[in-house]
Amino acid sequence: GPTCCIIAQQCPDIQVTVVDKSAERIQAWNSQDLPIYEPGLAEVVEECRGKNLTFSTDIDGAIKSADLIFICVNTPTKTFGMGRGKAADLKYVELAARMIADTVEPGTGLKIVVEKSTVPVRAAESIGNILKHNKKPGVSYQILSNPEFLAEGSAVKDLLSPDRVLIGGEETPEGQIAVDALAGVYSKWVPEDKIITMNTWSSELSKLAANAFLAQRISSINSISAVCEATGADVSEVAKAIGRDTRIGPKFLQASVGFGGSCFQKDILNLVYISECLNLPEVAEYWNQVVSFNTFQRSRFARKVVESLFNTVTDKKICILGFAFKKNTGDTRESAAIYVSKHLLEEGAHLSIYDPKVSAVQVKLDLEDPERPEMFKKLVQCHKDPYVAADKAHALIVCTDWDEFLDLDYKRIYEGMAKPAFLFDGRKMLDHSKLIKMGFHVETIGTRLSKSESERVDSPFLPAPCAHGSASVT
């Protein structure tokens, strides 16, 4: 969606057609209420739709008329069969390839098929095999890998000013022609030195490796956050110190309740499965630990909530601020809020949820247990007003880093809450000192707050506190 919209905006001489089997989804793309939320996307669609940007269910017509065909289908983690829980499910990629082969008419000439979906290494080879074994007279195919490096919530910005554009293709004269054709599209707005060409396999692996490295940094700093909480260090100060090292840099060193989204966990597990298949168990175990620690961080945070609330949250109202996996998106896939909420529901808590972009329908899809639907109905409520959501709550939990949460009237919220009022900042984004002075008992990631020295756990590995040390406000 966003990629094709930006291509249409930046290349007014190119006709871009986005097709989908779902008439409902296409109808949404043709309305004022787009099926996805991205800052700036609605303006781009409004500018180009009806000119050189079309949304349609006529898949056959679009395939027949296109010179470049982008495969942008979902590649979820397999839930059954070989590779269950790790391998990418490529059934939609295969179905798309077969549809292209069946639809392209004899004598059409060259069709360039571009793999945009995140796929395991050598998936382009599978697409090529399907197309070439079903090739009609007078038709030839070239398969390119062109992975996306977009961050949800800033996709439009990332597309307009990308760090790099990768294009992988066959190392043949025909492959080079196809690579040059796609590079020519991007060159309309992307500087030439940022368009990187390589072989197909390198391009596919680069996408998996990039997401694995980013997730690894998050799990790394989150592991340090646990050490900070146990010792009295501040993970923000540690992150600032190590981020000043130019070999490391400051990005993706913000400790939190854990990473989420559709890509990180899926791509790492895919890399784990590939490593296992290549008989590289040590490599597989290394990357699997990144995901394992992310799971630990979520459960550690959820346990902290229960322990702080006197070891029970049964029948207590807990306000969840934010349900999307990050700000500026309505995407809840692998959101930390889901894992924290499920843990609290199992403990019998009543959840009051507010997110500016996530619907109550989506919350229900994510939290309702098909075998116990009555639990969701009894224990979960969604609200469109954060103050209503927080009213009479025993605790607030910030799960998403929405900017609007910085500007809430926390004094008003505190006055309406049950006392003692707890606030758990899972994104380390609020002014904790100010909240403590209001009366909140504040807990966050990687820093000790609201605890007196008498609660300090003595350890033979740590020096005793100095007699003149300052005490925190309780």
Task: Write the topology of this structure.
Layout: H1 2-10, E1 16-19, H2 23-29, H3 41-48, E2 53-56, H4 59-65, E3 68-71, H5 91-103, E4 109-115, H6 123-133, E5 139-145, H7 155-160, E6 165-169, H8 173-186, E7 195-199, H9 200-231, H10 235-243, H11 264-277, H12 281-308, E8 317-321, H13 336-346, E9 350-354, H14 360-367, H15 373-379, E10 380-383, H16 386-390, E11 395-398, H17 410-416, E12 422-425, H18 432-438, E13 441-444
Parallel strand pairs: 1-2, 3-4, 4-5, 6-7, 8-9, 8-11, 9-10, 11-12, 12-13
Helix pairs in contact: 1-3, 5-6, 9-11, 9-12, 11-12, 12-13
Short account of what is shown:
This protein is an alpha/beta fold. The chain has helices at residues 2-10, 23-29, 41-48, 59-65, 91-103, 123-133, 155-160, 173-186, 200-231, 235-243, 264-277, 281-308, 336-346, 360-367, 373-379, 386-390, 410-416, 432-438; strands spanning 16-19, 53-56, 68-71, 109-115, 139-145, 165-169, 195-199, 317-321, 350-354, 380-383, 395-398, 422-425, 441-444.
List keywords for this structure.
474 residues, alpha/beta, 6-stranded parallel beta sheet, 13 strands, 43% helix, globular, disordered C terminus
Describe this structure in words.
It contains 18 helices and 13 strands. The chain has helices at residues 2-10, 23-29, 41-48, 59-65, 91-103, 123-133, 155-160, 173-186, 200-231, 235-243, 264-277, 281-308, 336-346, 360-367, 373-379, 386-390, 410-416, 432-438, and strands at 16-19, 53-56, 68-71, 109-115, 139-145, 165-169, 195-199, 317-321, 350-354, 380-383, 395-398, 422-425, 441-444. Helix 1 crosses helix 3 (41-48), helix 9 packs across helix 11 (264-277) and helix 9 packs parallel to helix 12. Helix content is 43%, strand content 13%. The radius of gyration is 25 Å and the shape is globular. The chain is an alpha/beta fold and 474 residues long.
